[in-house]
């Protein structure tokens, strides 16, 4: 494998479950040192893709190369060089924090002494030093997730796969996980993650693909996607009336685009304040007005007509 070759290459990759196609022919390249994301709503096919990359589920079609190897033929050699943080924590609740790492390290043939030393470094990295000797059971969800991340690093992997790394965590716990993942990124670790949180994708991903219905609907850096598929700013308008449809005709010509959601109208315009002034000039009196910058949520809405998190 040459240095410039992507660590992961998928071409027309397909995953079927019986008659159902969960991944419908996707092309992906992940390069060394980048944080690459699969962003999409529940059921988009992100986990199915991750499981193929993790060599625990065989592709139904297309080609997949990981670290220059074939996941079906060379699955165990690839797995030895991957770190996997699954969607559901699979820690041993009866073992201590440290034991969860040292026992896992033994699967990779790492000596007891090295395992112990590496476990302590990783426990410090994920800020669990004070809990190192405690059993896992009573730890908070955020602590368990950080420990799962530490466990994924035990074999010093070339690629770390993270399936929805912060789903189910409270905001503070999410920020702590993001901070640790950001540190990993800065150390040059290649991260591949799935998420349905646009803020997570924006925070962590250098490049991402937006998935919907098993297909890739867009690809780029968060900035590129926002530039390509949205305006600089968005005006969110709420009205006290229950039905918003009657406002659409009056607002349509303001800005570049309008989206009608069940509870609000979004006006897409590079200059949000000018759009708000135009709303005022039409004698419309919204009950609330918010001008904000475009996010990946707006990109997703534009591409699919739906919001990411229902
Ligand atoms: N083992 C399976 N057998 C049958 N259908 C499956 C199986 N695994 C996944 N699917 C289906 O494939 C589709 C994609 O699922 P997948 O888990 O890949 O989506 P996802 O984008 O990761 O969403 P989530 O965030 O819910 O995991 C879903 O409709 C799901 O029900």
Automatic annotation (TrEMBL):
Main location: membrane
Superkingdom to which the source organism belongs: Bacteria
Gene Ontology molecular function terms on file: ATP binding; ATP hydrolysis activity; DNA binding
Topology within the bilayer: Peripheral membrane protein
One Gene Ontology CC term in the entry: plasma membrane
Domain Core-binding (CB): 220-304
Keywords: Antibiotic resistance, ATP-binding, Cell membrane, DNA-binding, Membrane, Nucleotide-binding, Translocase, Transport
GO BP term, pick one: response to antibiotic
Subcellular location(s) per record: Cell membrane
Family according to the record: Belongs to the ABC transporter superfamily.
Protein name per its UniProtKB record: ABC transporter
Organism of provenance: Planosporangium flavigriseum
């Amino acid at each position: 494998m040459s240095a410039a070759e992507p660590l992961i290459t998928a071409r027309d990759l397909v995953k079927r479950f019986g008659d159902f196609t969960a991944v419908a022919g996707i092309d992906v390249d992940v390069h060394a040192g980048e944080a690459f994301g699969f962003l999409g709503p529940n059921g988009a096919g992100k986990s199915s893709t991750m499981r193929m990359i993790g060599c625990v589920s065989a592709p139904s079609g297309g080609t997949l190369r990981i670290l220059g190897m074939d996941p079906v033929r060379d699955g165990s050699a690839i797995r030895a060089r991957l770190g996997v943080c699954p969607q559901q924590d699979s820690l041993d609740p009866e073992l201590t924090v440290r034991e969860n790492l040292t026992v896992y390290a033994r699967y990779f043939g790492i000596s007891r002494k090295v395992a112990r030393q590496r476990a302590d470094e990783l426990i410090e990295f994920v800020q669990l030093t004070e809990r190192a000797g405690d059993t896992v059971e009573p730890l908070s969800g955020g602590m368990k997730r950080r420990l799962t991340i530490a466990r994924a690093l035990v074999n010093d992997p070339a690629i770390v796969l993270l399936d929805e790394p912060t789903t189910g965590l409270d905001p503070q716990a999410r920020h702590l996980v993001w901070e640790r993942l950001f540190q990993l990124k800065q150390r040059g670790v290649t991260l591949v993650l799935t998420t349905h949180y646009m803020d997570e994708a924006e925070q962590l991903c250098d490049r991402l693909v937006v998935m919907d219905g098993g297909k890739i609907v867009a690809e780029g850096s968060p900035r590129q996607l926002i530039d390509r598929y949205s305006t600089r700013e968005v005006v969110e308008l709420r009205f006290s009336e229950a039905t918003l449809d009657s406002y659409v005709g009056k607002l349509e010509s303001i800005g570049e685009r309008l989206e009608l959601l069940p509870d609000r109208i979004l006006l897409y315009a590079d200059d949000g304040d000018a759009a708000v002034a135009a709303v005022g000039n039409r004698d419309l009196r919204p009950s609330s007005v918010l001008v904000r910058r475009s996010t990946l949520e707006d990109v997703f809405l534009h591409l699919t007509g739906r919001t990411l998190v229902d």
